[in-house]
Amino acid sequence: MGQSESLSQYQYAVPIGQAKQGESRIYRNKGFTNELISSPQPEIKNMQDLIEYGYKKYKKNPLIGKQAGKLKKYQYRTYEEEYLDARKIGSYIYNQEIYYLAQEYKNYSIKFVGIFMMNCVEWNTIDMACSLYGIVMVPFYDNLEGEQITYILKQTNLTSVFCTEKQAQALLITEDLGNLKNIIMVGQLSTDDRQKLRSRGITIMEYSDILLEGEKNQRDLPKDIKPTDIFTFSYTSGSTGIPKGVMMTHVSFLSPIAAIQHMGMKSSDRMLCYMPLPHGTSRFCNMLAWYHGSKIGLSCGDMTKLTDDLKKLKPTIFVTVPTLFNKMYEIINEQFSKLIGCKGSLIKHAIATKLDNLKNKNQLTHIVYDTLIFNKIKNIFGGSVRVCFSASSPISKEVLDFFKISLGINVQEAFGLTEAGGVQFQTSNKDFNASGMVGGPCCNVEVKLIDIPQYGFLSSDTSDDGKPLPRGEICTRGPGLFAGYYKDEVKTNEIYDQDGWLHSGDIGVIYPNGSIRVIGRIANVFQLKNGSVISPERIENTYIRVKGVSEVFITSNGAEEYVVAVVVPQKDFVLNLLKEFQDKKQIEVQNNINKTQASKTTINTNTKIQDECATLNYEDSCKHGRVIEYFKYKFDEQAKLNGLQAKEYVKKIIIESQPFSTLGLYTQSLKLQRFFARKHFMSQLENI
Q: Which domains, from first to last, does the chain contain?
């Protein structure tokens, strides 16, 4: 099947061995064709070793801080302070046996403790404590409630959970708490709430008290933790049903730390922790700081104040997700669009010039345009970012290139499943034309593609000029893969094959330089009645960049005959769009009035048009035919500009006034739950 090749000339990976029928050849990182790396240092065998290594090397370094005082300046705790408190917490958990010893699944013997807290310094301390003592921490997203809480509590039989106030209150109103016996409070909880929990048989402990008790009887660290022992659980978001308990081993975190050592992280670096710590990317970044002795600055917890956090911390390393980059791109371009005349022309020319320099000269900076324009964008991120990654899911080329030229650095992509340790692929900071790709396999993984014949993605596919360009399901193998889903052999066997390959569920293309482009998720692909195969993520990444679009969900109409877009527009944009329409119509009416009746008619017409404009609120405006016509026209324009195929053009548009998050259509990791989204809009899709 003819396709275009990547512009990148950087060699990421090379094929090894021979291909099997229905599969591509196996690819490995070009520098690690003979072995896969499982640890950043030979002497580091588990996460206890990693913390001990960091403590000995960086004990006096500031490690983690939060905003405090009237001026909300960052105040830090040193690595030594965190380490010593972690020893106290771990000792208490062990001495008082407040963990649950799980021995009911296969041959595992797991000591469980739960953590249900907002991001805070103590979250990091407890994580360190569990790492040092071989206790398996079960993190809960801080906004979980009801059935999801019950499911995790009952599957793991947790007896003890560390909580902050809001999360303890969530437990209080949860009907079934399973085997829960102890809540360790970090912070305040009202007397009334404490009494209600005690009436349900729950013992309330204080974090400050267990620090004191743990110090009195400090326990030696265990010396029998194996690299393949279970280190932690990570409950997936459950986009179509019950969340799955991903069992991560010690090497599941060590191998990706080894994989990105070349990024040159230093003890003087600063990172902002703003994503929920149960999110694999956020927790992994903290562990990078443990290894490198870098600073972790906690955000204030309010996403609307993220830019304030960035300005206060001035991070040198910033790891984010496409959702945030897309939102910032939208806001910045909305501001640019308001500039007219010389200023507007200057910005358009500056962006075009820097994009051209990026593509043709591998040049990221421009002394004039950076001084006049782009340093202002750089300052939004604190002004000091030297390394930046977009992680978790693929990001559009247009958005990524925009931030490359804005920040003046080669923003990279990192990609991988939670089940595979989070980081399996990444682009190189030496590759300036990698946008649109997720790079090549890291030194801890090998990759191959397997045919998906039902959708026409084959390892035998070729480029437009006939060169091999295999497509198929991305499968990986390496030391960092997870141990399986807890108490779910069926799901584990679905994702693992007998040769140890993890089937990601992602559709990919491998280019001649060994880089990979992710087309989408197999589960998200849908087929129209005429046989056309649609991968919605690629189309959404195209349409999300249309001016005025805040969110977009690509699906089919109820009868699955054509592509439909559900669009959440920007509120101010829609209201301004209709106002512009009313103004133009008013001028048009005035121009057609008979001059002899101009005075009287104009007054009546103006009043009618102004009344119509005044009665339209945002919700009504979203239903206005002119708004739908605008987006349909702009979507067609964008599709043509980006080379979408005819089958990928949107035929109908549904305008939704409420954000998808308000409708409950996102997972905790900010991924759209497509199954529930389609179900939510099905009545409109059937009647469109």
A: 13-38+322-383+391-520 (2.30.38.10), 53-70+79-225 (3.40.50.980), 533-687 (3.30.300.30)
